[in-house]
Structure to design on (313 residues):
């Protein structure tokens, strides 16, 4: 088992910032999203919703006609078209990045010195590019595929029991991180963030399992993009791998608590930021009536989690 360090409320408190007097939409970070496709237009909306919920100062969306008009009709805050950005999110809702009309732009983003979340169909670009400043966000089967493309073997053949699968998955994420030099965030009930060269991975154990529904990974990718853009815009130097990994971990932690908050709201209860803070302070005791959520419910709960995190300690 690789060594892990749980990501906790105090870590989130250190990382989440509120806008200050001199801030503008640009200083809060510009996020570029090249997500969604004619096949999966909904993922474009969900990833943009994740970025907006995470507090993006300015969002650009680059994509084909159907997802573009869907994004504009659902989220008029988003500006359509490419342009200067502090971070990017690519691949969510793209079946195959190699076959996508944006393939050239996607490859450029993978190889640029720009913090970039590489999700779903864009993961297939990693094996035949020279990636730089990327956070790879595979789920288990995408990690397996990526390992295979990189010549590192698969995990599916080695599955035997939950604990063994987790161990093997952690090792596989570590070898992809070391081989590519990029950060790997492996999604699941437990999410791990592995940084190349770092001994310890960050670990987020979800306080509920209601996030296990289609589209929540798209929300996560967008939210991490917004966090990266904010951190990059605040910094006078390019973000280090370590700083990027902290933002990815923050994204996974906020996402897990947003799922918890949305599931509590599904019971009909009005859950305040104060109650969320109480649950986050004593995660082992977090309880209450819960019910099914949609990915968009999760995105809507993100601002409450951020408000709870920003409360005075
Ligand atoms: N609203 C939107 O627009 C949405 C768009 N989305 C977008 O869709 C794209 C494809 O993403 P994806 O994760 O679904 O695909 P993929 O990487 O192939 O993994 C497949 C995994 O599922 C499993 N599996 C398959 N069928 C199964 C079954 N019947 N019952 C059980 N398991 C089954 C299969 O397991 P296997 O059988 O291979 O072991 C494998 O583990 C991507 O771009 C994403 O962003 C999503 O975010 C959703 C919302
Ligand atoms: N059993 C579970 N418990 C808690 N969280 C889960 C569970 N299963 C999946 N998740 C979370 O839900 C999200 C699913 O992402 P992903 O697999 O990319 O789905 P999609 O492509 O449909 O968006 C991830 O953030 C993952 O950590």
């Amino acid at each position: 088992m690789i060594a892990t360090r749980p990501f906790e409320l105090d870590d989130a408190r250190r990382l989440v910032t509120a806008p200050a007097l001199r801030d503008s939409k640009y200083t809060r970070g510009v996020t570029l999203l090249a997500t969604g496709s004619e096949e999966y237009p909904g993922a474009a909306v969900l990833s943009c919703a994740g970025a907006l919920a995470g507090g993006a100062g300015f969002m650009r969306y680059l994509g084909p006609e159907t997802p573009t008009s869907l994004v504009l009709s659902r989220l008029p805050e988003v500006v359509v078209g490419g342009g200067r950005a502090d971070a990017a999110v690519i691949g969510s809702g793209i079946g195959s990045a190699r076959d996508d009309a944006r393939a050239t732009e996607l490859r450029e983003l993978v190889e640029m010195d720009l913090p970039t979340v590489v999700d779903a169909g864009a993961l297939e670009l990693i094996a035949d590019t020279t990636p730089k400043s990327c956070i790879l966000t595979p789920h288990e089967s995408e990690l397996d595929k990526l390992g295979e493309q990189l010549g590192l073997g698969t995990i599916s053949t080695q599955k035997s029991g939950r604990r063994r699968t987790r161990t093997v998955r952690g090792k596989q994420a570590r070898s992809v991180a070391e081989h590519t030099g990029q950060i790997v965030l492996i999604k699941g009930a437990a999410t791990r963030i592995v940084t190349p060269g770092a001994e310890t991975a960050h670990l987020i154990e979800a306080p509920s399992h209601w996030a296990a529904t289609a589209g929540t990974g798209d929300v996560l990718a967008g939210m991490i993009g917004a966090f990266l853009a904010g951190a990059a815009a605040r910094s006078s130097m390019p973000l280090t791998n370590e700083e990027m990994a902290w933002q990815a971990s923050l994204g996974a932690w906020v996402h897990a608590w947003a799922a918890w908050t949305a599931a509590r709201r599904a019971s009909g209860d009005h859950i305040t930021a104060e109650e969320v803070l109480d649950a986050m302070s004593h995660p082992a005791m977090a309880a209450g009536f819960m019910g099914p959520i949609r990915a968009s419910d999760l995105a809507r709960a993100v601002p409450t989690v951020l408000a709870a995190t920003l409360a005075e300690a």
